[in-house]
TrEMBL record:
Residues 274-344 form the GHMP kinase C-terminal domain. This is Galactokinase. Transmembrane segments: none annotated. Belongs to the GHMP kinase family. GalK subfamily. It is an enzyme of class 2 (transferase). NCBIfam families: gal_kin.
Length: 376
C-alpha cells in the first residue's frame, strides 16, 4: 500500500512537482520592476493527489501526522493556518480566478529545506496549483500559474514577496538560467552550464533560517516604494544607472539612498552577468557575485554573520565569486568555484563556522533543473 493510500484510503490519480530555486544575481529587484536571474534546483516539493467530489480539500504531509480538511467554498484568507495555509492559498486563488478545481486529497513531500531561502513556499504553492489543475485537466500557462501563486502568497499567506520565486518554479528549464524582466513581464532562457567550464555552483545553507513574513523584508520593500515616490517614478527600475548620482542627491535620508543604490546597481549587475554568460565568459561573472554580496551587506543591510563568514571564507578558499542568495537574514550563499575545489571550499566554510560556534552548514547540488511538471 502506498503512503497516500495509508493516509487517504484510496490510490492517487497523479503526482505533480515544483522545484525550489537559487537566484544567481538580482536580489530584491523583483518588486522594483527589475531584472532577476534564477535557476531551478533539483530539490522540489512533490504533491500526490486524487480528486474528490464533495468540494472538500484534505492536505497531509509525510512529515506530520493527521489530515487537515477545509471546504473549498469556505476557504478565505486566514481560514487555514500553519503550513496548510499554502495549499489552502493555492486552492483559494484558483477558485477566485474562476477555475473549477473541485475537491482533492493532497499529500505533500519535500526534499527542499524549509527556511533556507530556496523558495520552498513558492514551490509548495506552485506544486499544489499544478496538482489541483492537473486533476481536472485544466491547462493554464505556467507564467499565469506563477502570478496566481504570487497572489496567494501576498494575499492569503500575507508575505509581500515579488514574482521571481514563482516564475522560477514554473518557468525554468534544464541547463539554463531564467532571465526575467519583471517590468516587461518577459523571460529568456540563458545557457548556464558551469560543468562545461570545469566549474560548480556551490550552494551552502548557513542554517540561519530567514522568514519573509517578518518586518525586515517588508521594511526593505516599503523603503523602495518610498524612494520611488520621492523620485516620481513608478518603481526604482525607472532610475537609470547613469542617472544614479542625481537620483541619490534628490532623496531624503542616508538609509533610503543606500537602498536605492543597491537596487539600481544590482539591476546593472544582472545585465552585465547575462551579457557575459551569453558570450560564454562565465568565469567573469564571479566578481559580480561578490559585488552583489557587498551591496546587500552594506547598502541593503540584509546579511547576517553566518552569510558573511561563508562568503568571505569561500573567496579566501579561491572561489571566483560568492554572494548570499534569497531574501536575506539567513538562508544560503552561492559560490562559483572550480569543480576540483568544491570539497575543499565546503570544508573551509565548515571549519570557519566551527571557529565561530555557528551551526554546521549544509550544501546542496545546484544543477539547473526544469520547472513544475507532472511526474506520473
Amino acid at each position: 500500500m502506498s503512503k497516500f493510500a495509508e493516509v487517504f484510503g484510496t490510490e492517487p490519480d497523479g503526482v505533480w512537482r515544483a522545484p525550489g530555486r537559487v537566484n544567481l544575481i538580482g536580489e530584491h529587484t523583483d518588486y522594483n520592476d527589475g531584472l532577476v536571474l534564477p535557476i531551478a534546483l533539483p530539490n522540489q516539493i512533490q504533491v500526490t493527489a486524487s480528486a474528490r467530489t464533495d468540494g472538500v480539500i484534505g492536505v497531509a504531509t509525510s512529515g506530520r501526522p493527521g489530515v487537515i480538511e477545509f471546504a473549498l467554498a469556505d476557504v478565505s484568507p486566514g481560514s487555514v493556518k500553519d503550513w496548510a495555509a499554502y495549499p489552502a492559498g493555492a486552492a483559494w486563488v484558483l477558485r477566485e480566478a474562476g477555475y473549477d478545481i473541485g475537491g482533492a486529497n493532497l499529500l505533500v513531500d519535500s526534499d527542499l529545506p524549509s527556511g533556507a531561502g530556496l523558495s520552498s513556499s513558492a514551490a509548495l504553492l506552485c506544486a499544489t496549483a499544478v496538482a489541483l489543475l492537473g486533476l481536472r485537466d485544466i491547462e493554464v500557462d505556467p507564467a499565469e500559474v506563477a502570478r496566481l501563486a504570487q497572489r496567494a502568497e501576498n494575499h492569503y499567506v500575507g508575505a509581500p514577496v515579488g514574482l521571481m520565486d514563482q516564475m522560477a518554479s514554473m518557468c525554468c528549464t534544464a541547463g539554463h538560467a531564467l532571465y526575467f524582466d519583471i517590468r516587461a513581464m518577459s523571460t529568456d532562457q540563458i545557457p548556464f552550464d558551469p560543468e562545461a567550464e570545469g566549474l560548480s555552483l556551490l550552494v551552502v545553507d548557513v542554517k540561519a533560517p530567514h522568514r519573509h513574513v517578518d518586518g525586515e523584508y517588508a521594511a526593505r520593500r516599503k523603503s523602495c516604494e518610498q524612494a520611488a515616490a520621492e523620485l516620481g517614478v513608478p518603481a526604482l527600475r525607472s532610475v537609470a544607472f547613469e542617472d544614479l548620482d542625481d537620483a541619490l542627491a534628490r532623496l531624503s535620508g542616508d538609509v533610503v539612498r543606500r537602498r536605492v543604490r543597491h537596487v539600481v546597481t544590482e539591476i546593472r549587475r544582472v545585465e552585465e552577468a547575462v551579457a557575459l554568460m551569453r558570450a560564454g565568459r562565465l568565469r567573469e561573472v564571479g566578481p559580480l557575485f561578490t559585488a552583489s554580496h557587498a551591496s546587500l551587506r552594506d547598502d541593503f543591510e540584509i546579511t547576517v554573520p553566518e552569510l558573511d563568514v561563508a562568503v568571505d571564507t569561500a573567496l579566501a578558499a579561491g572561489a571566483l565569486g560568492a554572494r548570499m542568495t534569497g531574501g536575506g537574514f539567513g538562508g544560503c550563499i552561492i559560490a562559483l568555484v572550480e569543480t576540483s575545489a568544491t570539497a575543499s571550499t565546503l570544508t573551509a566554510i565548515t571549519e570557519a563556522f566551527a571557529a565561530h560556534s555557528f551551526t554546521p552548514p549544509a550544501s546542496l547540488s545546484a544543477t539547473p533543473s526544469p520547472g513544475a511538471s507532472r511526474v506520473s
